[in-house]
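ERR on first pass: missing label on line 2. Operator R.T. fixed the label and resubmitted. Corrected input:
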Amino acid sequence: QVQLVQSGAEVRKPGASVKVSCKASGYTFTGYYMNWVRQAPGQGLEWMGWINPNNSRTKYAPEFQGRVTMTRDTSINTAYLELSRLKSDDTAVYFCASREMVSWGQGTLVTVSS
Amino acid sequence: DIQMTQSPSAMSASVGDRVTITCRAGQGIDNYLAWFQQKPGKVPKRLIYAASKLQSGVPSRFSGSGSGTEFTLTISSLQPEDFATYYCLQHYSYPWTFGQGTQVEIK
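pass 2 clean. output:
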């Protein structure tokens, strides 16, 4: 069955960086864009961007441009989201979502606090 | 950015009610719209894609309609498991944008 398994919760100080992983199984990893979506506590969904695992091409939401990097490792069917210069309002659950957002990871809570 | 405005933001309804949620786009998005359901503490679930196509495995009481700037999600007969927050998403132009969500609560 299709699964996206994300890395565990992270705590960072303001100004630091965080890297979240998303391991895919049960489908052709390179066949579908991998989206990243975040959700601040008690808030709605926010699209951050996608990576095409086939060629590493990326598209980022302007809000995150310059702070976000999406990468992938096709040898282990894993996508990564790195967010730098973290601020307190980056505290959120970060989701990966593939297969046209039919399949979602379980979410990774990133807490930014001094 | 294309703003997606959902209405209402929250509603109370009873089991068996017909429920309609509207999503308005700030500019035309053809039919590049999806609907998602999210229950507390859970992952979003895609219900509808291309504005009106039912995702496989989703009950037929869910339906979507619309094109251009106005879209609706209808639940024909609300069931206990349908109490959740619903989001629309436009993927017509970048950045893709979600509506703010509609929370459907038990009356």
